[in-house]
């Protein structure tokens, strides 16, 4: 009986071992590399966005640094326009002595009173320089030049119909003087936007209009006064 009990116990133990699940453990040679990869932290969305923003900002900075003045091309048209502005503005300003004599004859005022017209006309471009530069930075050279040309033209047209010294001081001295101030500041600034290496040469050509305008306008004004 004891033998039969032992046999039954052995059979039952074998059945229990067969019923238990068998666990298999496999060791790979790439275990270290996998663990090292697993230890690396995944990038967070904030780091991804910061890296993308930094890359975009760096690309933008490269684009900005690559944008350079053309040093020619359309820039020479801008120089020509600036030349004409300086020719007209300074040509009229430095030829005022010819008009001054006619004002003395026409109004019959003394020299001191009549000189107020030319004094205001020459002072306005200098006094309104900060205002003209602010408007140029705010609205751009082209818009300021167009507005200044229209304002100066209106001042000159009204001055041609003026019958008193007070009206001339306002229209010719202040209105036209301020209009030419806007044109003058913008014409000097805009040349630097189109030239880098040749900036000095281009600015010199534009400013040459002042001397040529003075040379041309004095006899031209005298000719117009004699005819009309």
TrEMBL record:
Region (Disordered): 1-68
Keywords: Membrane, Transmembrane, Transmembrane helix
Localization terms from the record: Membrane
Membrane topology, record value: Multi-pass membrane protein
Pfam families: MFS_1
TM helices/strands, residue ranges: 74-101, 113-132, 144-160, 167-195, 201-225
Extent of Low complexity compositional bias: 45-64
Name the record gives this protein: Monocarboxylate transporter
Gene assigned in the entry: MOT12
């Amino acid at each position: 009986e004891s033998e039969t009990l032992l046999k039954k116990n052995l059979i039952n133990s074998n059945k229990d071992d067969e019923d238990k699940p068998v666990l298999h453990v496999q060791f790979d040679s790439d275990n270290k590399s996998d663990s090292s990869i697993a230890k690396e932290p995944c990038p967070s969305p904030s780091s991804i966005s910061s890296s993308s923003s930094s890359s975009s900002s760096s690309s933008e900075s490269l684009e900005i640094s690559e944008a350079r003045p053309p040093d020619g091309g359309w820039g020479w048209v801008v120089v020509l326009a600036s030349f004409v502005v300086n020719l007209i503005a300074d040509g009229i300003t430095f030829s005022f002595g010819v008009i001054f004599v006619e004002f003395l004859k026409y109004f019959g005022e003394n020299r001191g009173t009549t000189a107020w017209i030319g004094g205001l006309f020459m002072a306005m471009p200098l006094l309104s320089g900060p205002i003209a530069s602010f408007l140029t930075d705010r609205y751009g050279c082209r818009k300021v030049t167009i507005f200044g040309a229209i304002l100066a033209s209106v001042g000159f047209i009204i001055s041609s119909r003026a019958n008193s010294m007070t009206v001339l001081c306002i229209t010719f001295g202040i209105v036209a003087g301020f209009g030419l101030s806007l044109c003058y500041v913008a014409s000097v600034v805009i040349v630097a936007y189109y030239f880098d290496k040749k900036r000095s040469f281009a600015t010199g050509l534009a400013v040459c209009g002042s001397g040529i305008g003075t040379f041309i306008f004095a006899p031209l004004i005298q000719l117009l006064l004699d005819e009309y």
